[in-house]
Write a structure and sequence with these properties.
- This protein has one domain.
- With 448 residues, it is mainly α.
- Helix 1 runs antiparallel to helix 4.
- The strands form 4 sheets. A two-stranded antiparallel sheet has the order 1-2. The chain has a two-stranded antiparallel sheet with strand order 3-6.
- It has 14 helices and 8 strands.
- The longest helix is centred in the N-terminal third of the chain and has 40 residues.
Amino acid sequence: MNVVTLSQLQFAATGMFHWIFVPLTLGLSIMTAWMETKYVTTGDETWLRMTKFWGKLFLINFALGVVTGITMEFQFGLNWSEYSRYVGDIFGAPLAIEATLAFFLESVFIGVWIFGWNKISKKTHLVAIWLTAVATNVSALIILLANAWMQKPVGYVIRNGRAEMNDFLALLTNDYGLIKFVHTLMSGYALAAFVIMGVSAWHLLKDNETDFFKRSFKMAATWAFVASILVALTGDFHAAEIAEHQPEKFAAMESIWETKKNVGMSMLVFPDAKNERNAIESLTIPSLLSYMAFRETEGEIRGLKDYPKEMRPPVTPVFLSFRLMVGLGFFMIFSSLVGLVLSRKDNFTDNRLFLTIMVFAIPAPYLAQQLGWLVAELGRQPWIVYGVLKTADAVSKSITSTQVILSLLGFTVLYGMLGAIDIFLLVKYAKKGPDTDVSSIIQVQGRG
């Protein structure tokens, strides 16, 4: 493989591994803040125990997320120096803001939250976790706006052989990025809720702390169902954005080869490797695809055959990733709805089959998010900045394939070790269960 392909694999490997931690951090930060709010407003000790227990899993995940995210930025200078030279004035601005504003804010107040349990009042402690959660979500917003600029470049001019920003506000208000942010945020909330439901289900199967984990499951099921619905709704809006601004990606997502109007969505269809739609289609919903793309049933979708072959994204992985992502999304909506209904019944813990399913459902939102990123990034190819800079022109000219292979192997080994540590710690403390005695915290905070 050449340097371009190897550098793509390296960034994909590090990026996808980093994203294992990001959505859980986004979701658990808000949910932990919500639990502590319930404790402060009600004085119910169980909410404090929930805050401590789920907050501990949040901290483990947060630490690994920080470590794995730092290395990605170095790759812009090492593997992708031509990219940095060409668009660094634009792409560097949101990254700098994220580091100096959002990351600094969350780093400071997460420290206050960790070490302030027996030192500050409960209201001050609550403010600390909320500031941490807000900063974490703002960090995601800024990074996703930077990524959205690569998908839909706005507010720039080409000058002196480089892309230069001339409208920072346009970058901050990029509708592609704002929709992407809400979609990503809701998927993070859904993922965190599924983790809480899965861990709670495991303890309920073991008859451990039944009241505690029934409350955790019930709360998480509500979050999961609402967030999963919002993921689907924002995904629909995002698909319309893609159809308008990246029509090749939209055609690849549905394996549309011929340009036509009034296009239906086929529930069962497989793309042909020879770029021809000879596969059997069934369960077609008439006009749905045209409506999704243009909000009108007669909308014309441009087929992949209308684009030069070198300008088409890799169709099969984009198509299959999109279909699997959507399928997992429907599973999340259905299973969280079932959990929401069942958790309100007195005999909820008797549904052992469903509880077992929810334990094994923990990976579902993780997989859905990884597939979503594959659609987003593979579907943009051959562009690294859509319509502005091709991926092949963005890689560093001075590196060799051997150097990239060695660094890729190094990252694989290092990240594999970090992943094993993260899983070990999360499983260890998830299985351990909540602390039984929080009286010392209550006594100290009660004086605040």
